[in-house]
Here is the input.
Amino acid sequence: MLDSTESLKRFMRVAELGSFTKAADSLGLPKASISLAVQQLESKLQTQLFHRTTRKVQLTPDGHLFYEKSKDVLSEIEELETLFISDDSQISGVVRVNLSQPMARHLLIPALPAFLRRYPNLNIEVSSEDRKVDLVSEGYDCVVRTGEVEESGMMMRKIGEMQQSNFVSPGYLAQYGTPKSIDDLQQYYLIHYQTSSNKRFDAFEYQLDGELHRIKMPSRICVNNTDAYRAACVAGLGIMQAPKLGAMEMLNSGLLVEILPAWTAPSMAVSMLFPHRRNLSKRVRIFMDWLSDVIQNEL
Here is the structure.
């Protein structure tokens, strides 16, 4: 029979993902071992934890109660396991983090070798994509978000702010000329951006005397991810408004140039989110503190 801690971990992944198959895939285990762990728990507790159908798996009322209690118990166990480790460099385990591709590429990954030399028993799983991930259901320990944060039930730590700039390709300027002020924007196109939640950004934004102004602009293209956004700008399809971090390589190589530096969109808040738990494991706290410092030092 599995030990209680391992059974709890497997039960929680099923609860968070709503699927025995997905839980098995996320833990790198056979589906049968996940099912067995849950069956053993249900037998020991003498109650049903899940409603099982061919389409989905849902927690029963007893399962909900057990899940909430299990989160605290596992957190306490992880804390106890590191209680007498005086040397933090001996902390072990896996930390799963999600952040934007530019942050992963330009900030996290270049700094990671030094961190892993300091903590040789830690492993880091890095996910970087445009869509908004679900911390709990997808099993992340923390995520870094830019802009407005709307999640409820999550703890948030503001790290800093990311400056935005306006970019175009040299070829675009050769065709349309260089704008000297926002009054010149009438003859330009803006690359429109649509988020995964179908919010469309179709206006040039700038701040003046602390107030936000928006100028609706026509577009020849609308994209829904940052790679396509930058590629459209490099291809000369219009103006892009974005953090300079993601455009740095293209600026340095001459593929993009900055325009209208006095009329830029508001800075974007950079925040770290993590599940609302009474205790974070020591390895997650160590990683979050380190990553916060890395990002703050580079912004």
Observations:
- The two ends are 50 Å apart (CA to CA).
- The mean pLDDT is 87.
- The first helix runs from residue 4 to 17.
